[in-house]
Design goal:
The chain has 262 residues and is α/β, with parallel strands linked by helices. The protein has one domain (36-246): 3 Solenoid (UDP N-Acetylglucosamine Acyltransferase, domain 1), CATH 2.160.10. The chain has helices at residues 20-31, 33-69, 75-107, 124-140, 149-157; strands at residues 115-118, 161-162, 167-168, 179-181, 186-187, 192-193, 196-199, 202-205, 208-210, 215-216, 221-222, 226-228, 233-234, 239-240, 245-246. Helix 2 (33-69) crosses helix 3 (75-107). The protein is flat, with a radius of gyration of 23 Å.
Length: 262
């Protein structure tokens, strides 16, 4: 992981070690944070508009077809048909956006990489954009296909390394491109996997690796720079803090053997 000379970085510096456009962007961001940050959001919003617009196109076509086809029907049947067409169009959008979003994530000129440095850095841009695309799908449709092979496919297309027989029963995932899941890993409902955290003014982006047969319990949290060993079990609501190394077959608070007659 790129630590960028951890102890030598001045996180309050208004200058930049980069040259050219990257350096200009960092200097502007650090000197005029609010204005530059808002300006930087514009291309992200435009990208989201393009992705959503493309993904809505099949549904819009279908709705217009149904509207024209039912134009001579009775008002009750026509409106019922339009209602069904709207809902059908939404699901068409959902299954389209699952493929369109990874395509744009793939063609972008930068990739999410491990990083430790100030929040307002050029290296934080891929992190911000990658998660914006993840959340676009997460908050508009992904819940409807979790857990199914479709959400596994989506995360793979977004760069997550996923072995065979994996079950992901959550949408609370950030930084998918830095997550590696071994064969037969099970991620419980509403579990969180987040490959970034903040510490002492730094943004830290670091990978998460979960080895073969491990299980993450309901609503547990796994943070950045974590490795979970083979067949380890993370209990429900348990928090695995950054830089943790969980050994193979780990299990917190193992249940006691049942007492006969109880």
């Amino acid at each position: 992981m790129n630590h960028n000379n951890n102890h030598k970085i001045d996180i309050d510096s208004k200058s930049s070690s980069h040259t050219g456009f990257k350096g200009l962007f960092e200097r502007m961001l650090r000197r005029f944070m609010t204005v530059t940050f808002m300006a930087a959001l514009i291309p992200i919003y435009l990208l989201a508009i393009v992705i959503i617009g493309i993904s809505l196109t099949p549904g819009v076509y279908f709705f217009n077809f149904v509207r024209e086809y039912t134009s001579t029907w009775s008002p009750l049947l026509a409106n019922l048909s339009l209602g069904v067409a709207i809902v059908s169009g939404y699901f068409m959008y959902g299954f389209t956006v699952i493929f369109v979003t990874p395509f744009f994530n793939f063609i972008l000129p930068f990739r999410l990489k491990p990083f430790r440095g100030p929040y307002y850095s050029w290296e934080s841009v891929p992190w911000y954009v990658h998660n914006a695309l993840l959340y676009l799908v997460r908050y508009t449709f992904l819940e409807f296909v979790t857990p199914t092979p479709v959400n596994i496919l989506f995360y793979k297309m977004m760069g997550m390394k996923i072995g065979k027989g994996v079950q992901i029963n959550t949408t609370n995932i950030s930084d998918a491109a830095l997550i590696e899941l071994g064969d037969k890993v099970t991620i419980g409902g509403s579990a969180h996997i987040i490959c970034h955290y903040a510490a002492k003014g730094y943004l830290v982006i670091a990978p998460v690796k979960i080895e073969k047969g491990a299980t993450l319990g309901l609503k547990c949290t796994v943070m950045g720079d974590v490795q979970i060993g083979e067949k380890a079990v993370i209990s429900p609501h348990e928090v695995v803090l950054p830089k943790s190394r969980i050994p193979a077959h780990y299990r917190k608070n193992k249940p006691q053997k049942e007492v006969a007659g109880t």
